[in-house]
Structure formats: structure tokens, C-alpha cells
Design goal:
The chain is of the alpha/beta class. It has one domain: 3-Layer(aba) Sandwich (Aminopeptidase). The protein is about 35% helix and about 15% strand. The strands form two sheets. The chain has a seven-stranded mixed β-sheet, with helices on both faces. The chain has a two-stranded antiparallel sheet with strand order 5-6. Helix 3 links the parallel strand 2 and strand 3. The N terminus is likely disordered. It holds the Pfam family SpoIIP. InterPro entries: Spore_II_P. This is Stage II sporulation protein P.
């Protein structure tokens, strides 16, 4: 059915994503949508930011990873750091223009909040705040090299912090609010979901991790997860840096129209569920998770 639709319906070729586990209401008509950023908007924003004075410049121009005391078991990063949310942006109504290099307005803000919530639960977590757009521009690379760029960030983090086991690449979806939001106990939550690349040696283990976390999320917060999606090289990157550890996640929080209140609820919910999973894994192994 999926192959037929992809072949016969105009515009349906983008919907080749495999649904490994369907969350409530998830089907082929509302699966995740990834749109290439309007680079002219981003580059204009970069040009404007370059006109402003920069405080506390980093003379070594090295990527800094904010860390927590002790060992860090989790590394949070963003292959598409420009992904932003319309409610954070002034004068933006077009979802295709919901992009920003301001880390208080783009997906980096979600990663920062997740880092804070994991630290509260005793899980050492570091985060990359790399401006991927700017770094791509420096290398004269286009959007298709996003995961090549983030791969370097991940490899640097793994080399620097030997204790890192879990990799979480955080994104947001381009679907509208009615698809990316759910009510739980009378409050709106931004829904989340997992993407697993099947073109790497850790596919089965990473798929198992995503399925377990999806199930645990649904047990505590029914409807919060849109499910687990699998992509091969014909449907996307197919690897997503998930060959680097067997505890890798590409995790999408909400969509382009979600606000921070909705996102915060989901960040806290995920941190709670992941925290329980993390510490149980440590107890079972007798070593840091």
C-alpha cells in the first residue's frame, strides 16, 4: 500500500517513512514532515546578527559543551539547530519561515530545558549549542550536509567525555498544531516521537530503545508519543549518527506551532520517563548507564 501510494500520488513520495510503532492517531496521512530550511531567511538573519557587537568572543573558535559536575552519560545536540517555533517569533506566520539562529527561539532552547531536567534527576548531561547554519556556511556545505556536520560534534563529544552513552538529537516537526498536540489530564502537551535510522549496525538496539521509551511514555502519559518511525537511505539520511552508539535517539518535540508551555510539559514528562529508564539500566548493569 505504502509503495503504491508513493508511486501513484503526486507529492506522496516524501511519505516513505516506515511506521514501526504507531502512536494514537498516527497513520500515513500525518507522519512527520521535514522541510528544507529557507536558507535566504537564515542567511539574512546571520548577516543582521553579524552587524551587532558580540560579547565575550571565543578566541579559539572551538565548540563548547556546557557540562555538569561529574561524569556525563548523555549528550544532547541538534542537527537542525535552526528549527524554531512560530509562537517564539515576532511577525512570522508561515511555517516555512519558522527558523532562527537565536538559541532562545530555536530548538536549542528545548535541548537546554531537557538538559536541566535530566540534571535535576542526577543524570550528567552535556549539550551542543552549535549554530549548524553558520557552520554549514563556513564549510560551503548545504542542508544535505547537516548530519555530516553534527557527526563531527558528536565524535568530538564522545572523544572528550568517555562516559557518554546516550546520544539525543533533538528536532521539531513541521506538522500543524492539531497533529503535534494532545490533551493529558486537561492540559495541552506537545507530542513527541522517535526516528530510527536502519542503515547502520546499531539499528536493532536503537529501535528497541525507542520502542521501550515509547511504551513507557504511553503508560504514564497516554497519547504523548506519536510513535516510532524508521527511515532508510531512500527516505532520509538513514544513519542519523546512530552508528556511533547503540543508545542513540533522534527525538522530535512538538511541531512548528507549539508554544513553550506545551513543550515544557513534554520535556518534563520525557525526562521523568527517561530518568527512570536510565537509573534502572544502571542498577541492572551495576555500572553507569
Amino acid at each position: 500500500m505504502q509503495t503504491f501510494l508513493g508511486r501513484e500520488l503526486p507529492g506522496f513520495s516524501s511519505y516513505h517513512t516506515e511506521i514501526a510503532v504507531a502512536g494514537n492517531g498516527t497513520n500515513l496521512t500525518n507522519i512527520p514532515v521535514e522541510s528544507a530550511p529557507p536558507l535566504e531567511v537564515l542567511l539574512k538573519e546571520i548577516e543582521e546578527s553579524e552587524k551587532k557587537p558580540v560579547s565575550e568572543p571565543n578566541p579559539n573558535n572551538k565548540q563548547e559543551f556546557p557540562t555538569t559536575p561529574g561524569e556525563n552519560g548523555v549528550f544532547v545536540y541538534h542537527s537542525h539547530s535552526w528549527e524554531a517555533f512560530i509562537p517564539f517569533l515576532s511577525g512570522v506566520n508561515n511555517p516555512d519561515e519558522a527558523v532562527s539562529i537565536n538559541e532562545d527561539k530555536n530548538i536549542i532552547a528545548v535541548g537546554k530545558r531537557l538538559q536541566e531536567e535530566l540534571i535535576k534527576r542526577g543524570i550528567g548531561t552535556s549539550q551542543s549549542k552549535a549554530n549548524v547554519t553558520e557552520e554549514l556556511k563556513k564549510k560551503n556545505w548545504n542542508y544535505n550536509h547537516s548530519y555530516d556536520l553534527s557527526r563531527g560534534l558528536v565524535q568530538e563529544a564522545l572523544a572528550t567525555e568517555k562516559s557518554i552513552n546516550y546520544l539525543i538529537d533533538i528536532h521539531r516537526d513541521s506538522q500543524p498544531k492539531e497533529i503535534t498536540t494532545t490533551m493529558i489530564n486537561g492540559k495541552p502537551f506537545a507530542r513527541l516521537f522517535f526516528v530510527v535510522g536502519k542503515e547502520n549496525k546499531n539499528y536493532e538496539e536503537n529501535l528497541h530503545l525507542a520502542k521501550e521509551l515509547h511504551q513507557k511514555l504511553e503508560e504514564k502519559y497516554p497519547g504523548i508519543s506519536r510513535g516510532v518511525f524508521v527511515k532508510g537511505k531512500d527516505e532520509g539520511n538513514g544513519v542519523y549518527n546512530q552508528d556511533l552508539t547503540n543508545k542513540s535517539m533522534l527525538l522530535e518535540f512538538g511541531g512548528v506551532e507549539n508554544n513553550m508551555e506545551e513543550l515544557n510539559r513534554s520535556i518534563e514528562a520525557f525526562a521523568e520517563v527517561f530518568g527512570e529508564y536510565y537509573w534502572k539500566a544502571e542498577e541492572v548493569s551495576g555500572n553507569p548507564a
